[in-house]
Amino acid sequence: MKATVKEGIKGFTGTLDGAVYYYHPRLKRTLMRRLPKMPRQPQNDDYASIARQIKELNPSAAYRYDFKTYLAALRDHDETAAYPSWYSLFVKMLWAMRAKYPGQVDLKTITREQIHTQELPCRSVKTAVEDGLLPAVPGSQYLDHLL
Question: pTM higher than 0.85, yes or no?
Fold first, then answer.
């Protein structure tokens, strides 16, 4: 369902009356969805701690730019690629790395220092593509800025 708002408040986000409102920059629209009602479960805490740890990695501006460039190239190369932002692709890459290297990577405790000292493939878009964590697209070999 699309929420319609006046032009002056197009960036409105938040929760109100059991609904979540957020602005989607690619669609240039404010969207609304129902607030999820999920029971409290132990795995929810695990996912929350992983999400916080991933957020604390705080990639550099050049790395974020490389991911945005890669995402644009991926959308041009594959029309079925439905990633809303570079960050969702970044998170998917980290989960793929965890699945590929289960003994070496723990997303609950991952840090920038660990990524650089162990030379994990997520340190740049180029190394992630070379390792198979991300699909290959033309020009990805030039996206080599570090996390």
Answer: no
Q: pLDDT tens digits, residue range 31-43?
A: 888 888 878 888 8
Handedness of CA 135, 76, 51, 53 (dihedral sign): positive
How open is the CA angle 5-1-44, to the nearest 5 degrees? 110
Amino acid letter, 65: Y
Burial code (b: 16+ CB inside 10 Å, e: under 16) for 5-43 equals eeeeeeeeeeeeeeeeeebeeeeeebeeeeeeeeeeeee
Cα 52 to its chain centre, rounded Å, is 13
Q: What is the rounded CA–CA span in Å between residue 14 and residue 20? A: 6
